[in-house]
Design brief:
Radius of gyration of chain B: 24 Å
Largest interface: A-B, 104 and 102 residues
Oligomer: heterodimer
CATH class of chain A: Mainly Alpha
CATH superfamily of chain A: MetI-like
Strand content of chain A: under 5%
Radius of gyration of chain A: 24 Å
CATH superfamily of chain B: MetI-like
Strand content of chain B: under 5%
Number of domains of chain B: 1
Distance between the termini of chain A: 26 Å
Helix content of chain B: 55-70%
CATH topology of chain B: MetI-like fold
Number of helices of chain B: 12
Order of helices and strands of chain B: HHHHHHHHHHHH
Largest sheet of chain A: none
Number of helices of chain A: 12
Low-confidence stretches of chain A: none
Structural class of chain B: mainly alpha
Helix content of chain A: over 70%
Structural class of chain A: mainly alpha
């Protein structure tokens, strides 16, 4: 037993500052947040009563919050599909050896290095809703290419506006998904492909039975990472439209609640966001931990 | 123990044969170039618009190159294209300086702590080490909104200032999980023999870390420092909730420039967006491989 302590005492001591800090600032604050969400702290005055899940019920019966969830859903759908399609397509085209591959790769990936605030400046302009003579941005391009029918009000559209907001997000994250898929493609042993070819498998069959199964863990990673970024979307919307009802998502609604000192409401929205992300992340973390254990 | 991103090309692969392949090769390059142009398009817009004086920014010519040199005014004595850059620089320079003061220490400190954690978690088996790792890792994925309400309250009740110093603390704390992850995955690749040799020599864990492991850690540090620097630089969420326009980082100043008083001045806003992106872009261009190394570590698997 003493030997045991001698062995694992020092390492535990070294990681303990991190454990304590994260214990307070991640787990402690999450607990604090949940407790605020169950109080009636709707102003600067301290909370008076414990109200249980009343705030949650109020939120889920409120049209405004449901509208923000619906916006988030549309955004997430387009964001996920867009990044997966472009990311896969680019990786697939680059995988089999392309001259100047490095240049294509670097350019496709570079938007990742830019902040949503900075890209919001230019995308706000590109997604300008004016049409016809007054059109600028993308609408102007459509107009001058004779594709005037493609002009649309972008994010000002009441139903599909959130799909337009997904465009800059797709622009920024597709390169990242490409990098993930590319590492997936390149992790497939050449012998596997060779073997499939020897067996006389057609190109499509090889993809269907060799490549896709090998890529599925990567695809899952990409979905989880992009998905959890999408649920948190905030910067981009603030930069393009500011916090307005039209493009409201839970994260921007939270900002409005917090700045109007409705702490209970902002904490409630935060807990819901956390749960949404946890549903996505926790199974994934467990899955990866298991996979790693099996690997050792 | 070099950083591999896993996306570099392996040995050249023999490609197919015949005219069909040539045709599809051409089609592929055409597509690749179209995508290249599409991805670069916003940059073109930024550069071109930033060099046009306000009088020349109108919808009809919005995609065109500037019609005059950036130092030529539209009317004598009027604003020039360069004036956009002057306005942007005046609006952002203070904030850019503050953001360096924020991003550099935040990156260095969380990297160092991450290295220590990563080292311990990659080598020493103590009870429930896996749980400890997952405990730390979870902090990487939480939406920061989930802790923002109590964090703002905590900041107020502790009387912390709404400036860079608070943000440094916050970025160090919430950078710990990713730095720990990157270093753990990096140290798993160090051969055990190296450690054993130093342990046989009677070196304790700290000595081993300092004299054997740290000197080998440069590539790991490059990755985490770049990652932390970029995320602190680009952060908007913490900046908005915890600091203010006057004392905050460049993301706030840029947002103010773009949406604030000079609403109509797209040229200055775009010049500002370019200025604010320059440091991270330079890092990406010069140290791209390490930047991607950090990105890939986000997918948990080493």
């Amino acid at each position: 037993m003493r030997k045991g302590i001698k062995n694992w005492g020092p390492p535990l001591l070294l990681v303990s500052p991190t454990i304590i800090i994260l214990g307070i600032f991640v787990y402690g604050l999450i607990a604090a947040n949940i407790s605020v969400s169950m109080s009636d702290r709707h102003s600067l005055k301290p909370a008076e009563n414990f109200v249980g899940i009343d705030n949650y019920i109020a939120l889920f019966t409120e049209d405004r919050f449901l509208h923000s969830l619906c916006n988030l859903g549309i955004f997430t759908l387009f964001f996920l599909v867009g990044t997966m399609v472009f990311g896969f397509l680019w990786a697939w085209m680059l995988d089999k050896g392309v001259t100047a591959e490095g240049i294509f790769r670097s350019v496709y990936l570079f938007p990742m290095a830019i902040s949503f605030v900075a890209s919001g400046v230019v995308w706000r302009w590109l997604l300008n809703s004016a049409e016809g003579d007054r059109a600028s941005g993308l609408n102007r391009i459509f107009e001058s290419m004779g594709l005037g029918f493609l002009q649309n009000p972008w994010w000002s559209d009441p139903t599909w506006g959130m799909a337009a907001i997904a465009l800059p997000a797709i622009w920024q994250l597709s390169g990242y998904v490409m990098a993930l898929f590319l590492s997936g493609f390149r992790g497939i042993p050449e012998e596997l492909r060779e073997a499939a070819r020897m067996d006389g498998a057609s190109e499509w069959k090889m993809y269907r039975h060799v490549i896709f199964p090998q890529l599925s863990p990567v695809a899952l990673s990409a979905l989880i990472i992009v998905g959890h970024m999408s649920l948190k979307v905030f910067d981009l919307i603030m930069a393009i439209t500011k916090a307005i009802y039209q493009t409201e998502v839970p994260a921007t609604y939270l900002w409005i609640a917090l700045t109007s000192n409705d702490y209970a409401k902002s904490a409630t929205i935060a807990t819901i966001l956390l749960l949404l992300v946890a549903i996505l992340i926790i199974p994934y973390l467990i899955y990866t931990a298991r996979a790693e254990k099996a690997h050792r | 123990m070099t950083i591999t991103t896993g996306i570099e090309k392996k040995a050249p692969v023999a490609t197919g044969h015949g005219a069909r392949v040539h045709l599809s090769r051409t089609a592929k390059y055409v597509l690749l170039v179209i995508f290249l142009v599409a991805v670069m398009m916003p940059v073109y817009v930024l550069v071109v618009t930033s060099l046009k004086p306000p009088a020349d920014v109108n919808p009809a010519t919005s995609w065109g190159l500037p019609v005059r040199w950036p130092w030529e005014p539209v009317a004598p004595g009027g604003p020039t294209g360069f004036d956009n850059w002057v306005i942007a620089w005046e609006a952002l320079s203070g904030a850019i300086g503050r953001t360096f003061m924020l991003a550099i220490p935040a990156a260095l400190i969380s990297s160092f702590l991450g290295a220590m954690n990563g080292f311990v978690l990659s080598r020493w088996r103590f009870p429930r080490a896996d749980w400890v790792f997952t405990f730390i890792l979870f902090g990487m994925f939480i939406p920061y909104q989930a802790i923002m309400t109590p964090l703002v309250q905590m900041k107020t009740s502790l009387g912390l200032p709404s400036d860079i110093s608070t943000l440094i603390l916050v970025h160090i704390i919430y950078g710990l999980p990713i730095c720990t992850l990157i270093f753990r995955n990096y140290y798993v690749g160090i051969p055990n023999e190296l450690m054993e040799a130093s342990r046989v020599d009677g070196a304790g864990m700290l000595r081993t870390f300092r004299s054997v492991v740290l000197p080998l850690s440069v590539p790991g540090f490059v990755v985490t420092i770049i990652w932390q620097f970029t995320s602190a630089w680009n952060d908007f969420l913490f900046a908005l909730f915890l600091s203010n326009q006057r004392q905050g980082p460049v993301s706030l100043a840029l947002n103010n420039l773009a949406q604030g008083a000079q609403l109509a001045n797209y040229g200055a806003a775009m010049a500002g967006a370019l200025l604010a992106s320059l440091p991270t872009l330079v890092v990406y261009i010069v140290l791209g491989k390490y930047f991607i190394g950090g990105l890939m570590s986000g997918s948990v698997k080493s």
